[in-house]
Amino acid sequence: MSIKLIIDSASDISPDEANELGLELMPLLISFDDMDYKDGKTISKTEFYRQLKAHDQLPKTSQVTPYEYDQVISDVVSKGDTAIIITLASTLSGTCSSAQIAASNYPDDKVFVVDSMNVSVGERILIMHALDLIKQGLEAAEIVDILNEKKKQIKLLFLVNSLDSLYKGGRLSRLETMAGSFLSVKPILALEEGKIVIAGKGRGTKKSCHTHVELAKKYGEIDFSMPIYMAYSGDDESIVYNNSNAYEELFQKPIEEIGLTIIGSTVGTHAGVGAIAVGFFAKN
């Protein structure tokens, strides 16, 4: 009997990575006009950003359904294994609710649901920690208790080009958007208790990256014994490498040694092109 982690595509873990790590990946749905795609499975990140630039209207995102979760849970439980489902923040999507509905059909000691209260690399580092706990041989219930405590220490900050996509997608109010939007100003967002807040802003890319780092430091001292990760949106990683000095200072290691991934469709819809995200656990 083993423990199987079931995750969603909002973690920005690719299908190839999921297969390599032994994770069951549940894709959210992305819709451009009348075409539906499974995030990361039937639309690549490269193709998503190509279409995002080509369309005037933002795509729509849809949660994983209870039925889709049930299909995977049934397979896990039928093999005698235990499932731990880690979802993106319940405040941002109904995916967690779908997982809970599906899990209610199974014994409590066979299926567990963890609301990460995060997204993108914030969700990803909680998943990576869960994998470490499984390797340590802990029981599922103990792992879930630890995850529910450790998720409170996750800090996630995004540097974005503008707030337009977040406003159009209903993630920020018009007042919040107006307050954070000025010519040449790049807003910096944080996720606090699952809610997107404007943490600060910078002017110009290079200065904004340094402001991004300084704000991250204020959110807490990094626990380097835990996973750390960065991500960017779009098809050009130079936005990170051209500003590597700032992020190397934050994470105290060369940029090549910092985990780096591309923000996928679910988060990219709202963050837009040219965003940079940092995710880490803060010390108590």
TrEMBL record:
Database matches in InterPro entries: DegV, DegV_C, DegV_domain_contain
Organism: Peptostreptococcus anaerobius 653-L
Organismal lineage: Bacteria, Bacillati, Bacillota, Clostridia, Peptostreptococcales
Full protein name: EDD domain protein, DegV family
One Pfam family named in its UniProt record: DegV
Keywords: Lipid-binding
Superkingdom of this protein's organism: Bacteria
MF terms in GO: lipid binding
